[in-house]
Amino acid sequence: MGVVMFVLVAIVLIETGSFEGADFGGILIAVAGGFAVAISVAVMAGSKKILIADNAGEPELLKVFMARNLLTKAPLEGAALFNVIAFILEQSVWSLVIVGFLVAVMIATFPTQTKLDNFLTAHTTTTV
Question: What is the pLDDT of residues 57-114, one digit of tens each?
């Protein structure tokens, strides 16, 4: 939600003429875009690597689920905010496209009750 609000502030700043863009020759967009790609790949690859003890009970699993959620969303949000700043400075729509992609990834991976249930089922050990 913070990213969306920041995008709205950026659009208002630019549309009202309150902020004039700067010409960085597209380098800021390239850096911000590269950062977004690198973060997205790292998050997707690393999200499964948070270790879970073999004898973890439901309270511990809930903590892991929430930590995994936080650790995967924070870098994506940081990359999105970086691209909003690139949009403010260079006023290129490409930065907003990248922001839209990152927000879509955050929405697609938003925790739901079904995802939590599946996580708990997959990591609950049954002992006989």
Answer: 788 888 888 888 888 888 889 889 999 999 988 888 999 999 999 999 999 988 899 9
State yes or no: pLDDT of 128 exceeds 50. Answer: no
**Structure-token pair, residue 7:** 């995008």
Counting other chains too, the contacts that 8-16 makes at CB distance below 8 Å and 24 or more residues apart are 10/84, 10/87, 10/88, 13/88, 14/87, 14/88, 14/91
Question: The pTM is what?
Answer: 0.74
DSSP per position, 56-119:
--HHHHHHHHHHHHHHHHHHHHHHHHHHHHHHHHH--HHHHHHHHHHHHHHHHT---HHHHHHH
Contacts of 24 (CB under 8 A, 6+ apart): 89, 90
Measured between its terminal Cα atoms, the distance across the chain in Å is: 45
- For 81-104, b where at least 16 C-beta lie within 10 A, e where not — what string? bbbbebbbbbbbebbbebbebbbe
| Residue 59 to residue 85: CA distance in whole angstroms | 39
